[in-house]
Structure formats: C-alpha cells, structure tokens
Amino acid sequence: MPTILVVDDHEEIREALAEILEEEGHKILQAADGLQALEVVASSRPDVILLDIAMPGMDGLETLRRLKDQPESSNLPVIMVTAQGDRQNMVKAVQLGVRDYVTKPWEPGEVEMCVNWALKAASVVPNQDPPLLAQSA
To answer: How far is Cα 80 from Cα 13, in angstroms, rounded to an integer?
Structure first.
C-alpha cells in the first residue's frame, strides 16, 4: 500500500485530500507545515508528497528545496497542490524538481491521476493505469 504525505496548513484541505486518496487504497500521513513535513519524511519515508506552497513558517517552495537537497529524499515525487497558480511559483517549483502541479480547487479525479502517475513513474505501482478525468466528472 503506497504511503502519501499530505502537507497543508488547512486541516480541511488535508482531510479532503486524505479522504480522496484513502478511497484509492493509499495510506495517508499528514503534516501542517514544512518543518513537520521534513520530520515526517525523515521518520516515515512516504512514496509521494502533496505539498501546499502558502504555509506559515517554512513555505512549500522552501520545503521542496530542502527535500531535494537531502540524498534520502531527493528522489521522492512531490506534487504541489496549491491555490498559488501563478507562473512564477510554477517555474520555481519546476526548477526545484516538482513532479506535478495541481491548483486549488482541483478537478474531480485530478489529484488521483497525478498521484497514480507519480507512483507509476517511481515504480511503486508498476501495472496500475491512472484514472481518467472523464470517468470522475
């Protein structure tokens, strides 16, 4: 069972993402900020990280930079899930090595598709096809 870390300072967003991904059969870990996310990654080694940008303290871009700077987490797929859909943040995230970028509010099936693609690319679920967006709409 793949493990997904959901990082967002808003509990209702974390819970919504957790519910969606638990229905897909994933184990969910949660963190409320970037520092807590780094601690969870160090102790639990998730398969994929969903990461918000706008968080108090350490924002998602700094968290992503630190994850990619550490050898033990540099290859972890990170998907930004954020209301910050501006081009500047997207470019920064891509330069830092983000796997995918989802803007809030996300479309039905979008998060599941991105997570499944990330897992497939990381060979965590090698024979699982991602859900189609049209099936969820």
So the answer is: 13
Domain segments of the chain: what residues? 3-136
| The two three-digit tokens of residue 32, written as one number | 């409320």
User: Which tens digits make up the pLDDT trace of 82-93?
Assistant: 997 789 999 999
CA distances from 6 to 17, 58, 118, 127, 135 (A): 7, 15, 14, 24, 24
**Rounded distance between C-alpha atoms, residue 137 and residue 124, angstroms:** 26
Could you report the per-residue pLDDT of 57-80, keeping only the tens digit for each? 999 999 999 999 999 999 999 999
* Residue with token string 């059969």: 25
CB burial readout 92-107, b (16+ within 10 A) else e: bbeebbbbbbbbeebe
**Topology of the domain comprising 3-136:** Rossmann fold (3.40.50)
pTM for this prediction: 0.87
102 forms bridges with which residues in the sheet?
81
**Spatial separation of the C-alpha atoms in residues 124 and 64, rounded to whole Å:** 21
